[in-house]
Structures are given as structure tokens and as C-alpha cells.
Amino acid sequence: MDHPLIDLINAKIAEAEAEGAFDNLEGAGKPLPREEDPENAMLNRLVKEAGGVPEFVSLSRELARLREELLETGDRTLRQDIMKEMSMMEARIDLARKQYR
Which of 9, 29, 44, 54 is the most exposed place for a label (fewest CB within 10 A)? Predict the structure, then answer.
């Protein structure tokens, strides 16, 4: 069963074609770029355009913040807590990198 608005959609596309809306598009006549993950290509594109980053990137930023905090901290107990958190963060980064591939 066709979509109830298919006739309207086709009319709008035909109108846009007649007005030249599809003339001189970037990449016209060239093959589409090859996708490494075709099943998730649209989702990956939307995330990228929205400024999203892979989990391991955001975790790496958090690790960098912890390293700065460690440099600024003189309290031994707090430094130990930060180093434990850094160790856990490094393990999470490794896991996230493996999942990303």
C-alpha cells in the first residue's frame, strides 16, 4: 500500500525538478561515497553533523581533565582517588575503542 501522500510528494518533486532545484548539485553524476557501515550510515551521519563523537573520544577528554586535576592536587588521598578513576577511565577507553571498530 502506498503512502497516502505519495501523489503530493511526487507532485512536489516534479515541481522542484521543473524549477531546476536539482540542477548543479554537488557530486552530480558521481558515485555515492562508499560507506563502511551501510546499515547505520544515516545514523552515523546525523550524529556527526550534530557534533557527536565516539564514546572513546569523550572518555579521552574526561581522562585529560582528570590528569589536569591530578597535577593541581596536593592531597595524597585525593590523588590516589584520582589515579584510581584514571585507571578505570583508561580501561573504559580501551573497551570503547574495541567496540567502535
Answer: 29
Integer Cα distance of 73 and 80 in angstroms: 10
The secondary structure element, H or E, covering residue 19 is none
Distance CA(87)–CA(92), nearest Å, equals 9
Which residue's entry shows cell 524549477? 19
Contact 66, 86 (CB under 8 A): yes
Q: What is the pLDDT of residue 4?
A: 85
Grid coordinates given for 2: 502506498
Walk along the chain (101 residues) in steps of 10 and give the mean pLDDT of each run.
86 95 89 82 83 86 95 95 96 89 69
Contact 70, 86 (CB under 8 A): yes
